[in-house]
Amino acid sequence: PQGSEEAKAFVHAFLKRSMPKMKDEEIQDMLTRKAVVLEHYPPKKMKQKRKKTKGFTAKQRRELRLFEIEPEQQRYAIFLPLHELWKQYIRDLCHGLKPDAQPHMIQGKLLKADLHGAIVTVTKSKCPSYVGITGIILQEFKHVFKIITKEDKLKVVPKLNNVFSLEIDGFISYIYGSKFLLRASERSAKKFKLKGTIDL
């Protein structure tokens, strides 16, 4: 530990080095009259520009087959746990789906909800071959649903000109595909009109 005299000598030497143009008398005068503010200019750090990570283009995604489900994975039983997760998600979203819940409130939430894992049925269609298809939604795109049926067949069902129904805890909701031509991410921000034309 330094004594008071050593400390004074250190401060005096430090100030002498820091302010070589000033005389000793001026330094002493500054010390007795006011505090000394030493200016220090740290070197400026150059900001590195962050490179934006560029995602794959639609063509690259198709070439890499990122969204294709392998044939050995196309089994209904594999995706039943996904359906159970979806049901719990909807119950949480609708605060329990109580019997006294207002249908239009539940309908409004379902319109914006993520449907991956929901079991849907094609109830009406302009193409009769689609009517009756039932299965779990594995993928939702802007214009189509990819549905896995109980027969382990992957069906690509267009939204346009089809009416889908989904049931959870006794509540049945109908989705008019022609009014549903949106990606799942876009639907969450869209305002739907619950009343309107319901034709195919």
Automatic annotation (TrEMBL):
GO terms for biological process: rRNA processing; tRNA 5'-leader removal. Its main location: nucleus. It comes from the Eukaryota. SUPFAM superfamilies: Rof/RNase P subunit-like (SSF101744). Coiled coil: none annotated. It holds the Pfam family RNase_P-MRP_p29. GO terms for cellular component: nucleolus; ribonuclease MRP complex; ribonuclease P complex. GO terms for molecular function: ribonuclease P RNA binding. Keywords: Nucleus, Phosphoprotein, tRNA processing. InterPro entries: RNase_P/MRP_Rpp29-subunit, RNase_P/MRP_Rpp29_sf, Rof/RNase_P-like, Rpp29/RNP1. It is found in: Nucleus, Nucleolus. Component of ribonuclease P, a ribonucleoprotein complex that generates mature tRNA molecules by cleaving their 5'-ends. Component of nuclear RNase P and RNase MRP ribonucleoproteins. RNase P consists of a catalytic RNA moiety and 10 different protein chains; POP1, POP4, POP5, POP7, RPP14, RPP21, RPP25, RPP30, RPP38 and RPP40. Within the RNase P complex, POP1, POP7 and RPP25 form the 'finger' subcomplex, POP5, RPP14, RPP40 and homodimeric RPP30 form the 'palm' subcomplex, and RPP21, POP4 and RPP38 form the 'wrist' subcomplex. All subunits of the RNase P complex interact with the catalytic RNA. Several subunits of RNase P are also part of the RNase MRP complex. Belongs to the eukaryotic/archaeal RNase P protein component 1 family. This is Ribonuclease P protein subunit p29. The gene is Pop4.
